[in-house]
Specification:
This protein is of the alpha/beta class. It is about 35% helix and about 25% strand. The protein has 7 helices and 11 strands.
Length: about 240
């Protein structure tokens, strides 16, 4: 039996698949990474069994600056219409929301950085991607933008105490997570370097944030790897 082929769309070199790519391959998938910012054309969706859209520093509405976003959104709509398992991560989560008729914008409460508890809602208990094992307790947040309006038919699965969507099922086989299950500390250090001046002004202790995330590495892997294994199983159906 041929291993499921997962198309991974990377928006910038600083935001690679990292853990997610490894976990999918460990679960029996093959991954192909498309880097449209480096000139890669988006391939045809029907050649793939699943789609993963990664994070990045651009916004979900920045089609003029990142012209691949327009065809990517069309691909997301095709995936939703044809039942191709799709997972959006951070920016990818926001791109999926916008593609399917929702909205994303700057978080009026400011940037979220660090480990944040997952505010799971009862709807997650019977979700095809999440049901069947313990839900992740926490997730790595490193974002300025959030989903501000859900598309029609979307189901909120987890939210912050302020109601900001953390995990959404946008369509029967399409999910988005605001957190970064893919990011390891090496990836996060490059993001921290880019945000250093801003974090100094805001009083954010980057060393403490990174140390807390590094200390939670085993917890995060144990919690999020099974989610990607279930996604891989959906890709293989």
């Amino acid at each position: 039996m041929t291993a499921p082929l997962v198309l991974v769309v990377e928006h910038e070199a600083a935001c690679p698949p990292a853990h997610v790519g490894r976990w999918l391959e460990d679960a029996g998938c093959r991954t192909v990474v498309c880097r449209p910012y480096a000139g890669d054309p988006l391939p045809a969706l029907p050649a793939h069994d699943a789609l993963v859209v990664l994070g990045g520093s651009i916004g979900a509405n920045d089609d003029a600056d990142a012209p691949w976003l327009t065809p990517l959104k069309a691909m997301v709509r095709d995936a939703a219409a044809t039942g191709v398992p799709t997972l959006g991560i951070c920016l990818g989560h926001q791109v999926v929301a916008v593609a399917l008729g929702g909205a994303a914008d700057r978080n009026p409460r400011g940037q979220q950085v660090g480990l944040l508890e997952q505010g799971w809602l009862p709807e997650a208990s019977d979700d095809a991607l999440l049901a069947g094992s313990a839900l992740p307790l926490r997730g790595i947040q490193w974002n300025d933008d959030i989903v501000t309006a859900l598309p029609d038919g979307a189901r909120l699965l987890a939210a912050t105490p302020a109601g900001e969507p953390q995990v959404v099922r946008f369509a029967p086989t399409v999910w988005g997570v605001q957190s970064h299950p893919e990011a390891d500390v090496g990836v996060l250090r490059s993001w921290a370097d880019g945000d250093r001046d801003d974090h100094l002004e805001k009083g954010i202790d980057q060393a403490a944030v990174l140390a807390e995330i590094e200390a939670a590495a085993d917890e995060l892997e144990a919690d999020w790897r099974p989610v990607l294994a279930r996604f891989a199983a959906l890709a293989g159906r």
